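hey m, so remember when u said the tokens were messed up on ur end? i reran from scratch. heres the input so u can diff it against urs
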Amino acid sequence: MIKIENVRKSYGANDNKAEILKGISLDVEHGDFAVILGASGSGKSTLLNVASGLERPDSGSVLYDGENIAALTDEKLTAFRKKKIGFIFQQYYLLPNLNVDKNVKMGAELAHNNDYAEVIAALGLSEKRGKFPHELSGGEQQRVSVARALAKKPEVLFLDEPTGALDEETGRSVLDYICKLQDELKFTIIMVTHNANIADMAKTVIRMNSGKIVEQYRNQAQKNAYEIGW
């Protein structure tokens, strides 16, 4: 279980200090699919960054099976992320000097996964394996970033607007593949999105406003990627 307890996070200092997370507490069960919704500036991406260990909270705890990752040294926190966490962001963060195959291989090697070609094929990138990021469209680059994260076989997959650069058809197929892989590998998904329709795919839906959780509920039935609105 991921257990977030009374987490606060601010940016800036003195008169320019802005509190982004205002005492957030949240539990996410292993194998859950949690979607975080909220307007721009609500704190949802900051919550994602703190929950994943990319950023440290100013106060509070981020517990993974009882271990507070917020209290780990930088070295141990980096090792934790490499071993257990996968990320898919709006920005692609691909290495420009590596082709598609080698970008995805970077994630696969962290999990000693030699079958990463299956992920590349499933995301429709087989014919692009030798291409470099500058030779790809934005949607193709996003699919490479998805493939890299999934090839790592993470225990927890964090996604920040994963379909933002994708057209509807590709966005649905990517979400469908992620969910099918989750059924197979039993990892946890925590996703931030502006597309409220994607919440219909989740087990747990969290709504944020002004740095606080204002609503949390569980869907009685989950829709698949081809059943939701867009």
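this time it looks ok to me. The beta strands are 2-11, 18-28, 33-37, 59-64, 67-68, 85-88, 156-160, 188-192, 204-209, 212-218. if urs says something different then somethings off w ur setup not the seq
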